[in-house]
Design brief:
mainly alpha, globular
Amino acid sequence: TNLQENNQKLQIDLENDLHQILQSDLKKPDLLPFFSNFEKLYPDFRQSLQKIIPDITANELKLCSLLRLNLSSKEVSQLLNITPASVNKARYRIRKKIGLDSTEDLFVYLSNI
């Protein structure tokens, strides 16, 4: 279960990274360390998503990564330096690209990738 321990530590690191970024007053936070930790924790997420949505953009991938962690629109908007309304529009566009109907939860869908 060494792998489980590593994943648990990565999960904690990821949450700490996010917490620090959200607490900082930086207008354009450096998200690279966060996304590299995310890729270590969920190594197949990006590829699986690209198979489902071949024309997914880099920004949509970032958004899906943050949504995968069940962040609110407000938190995502702070991290990406966009408005919560923009997050909701982007979320809607991703739902359309995936083909989810209004009864299906995007977070649940992304969690199962």
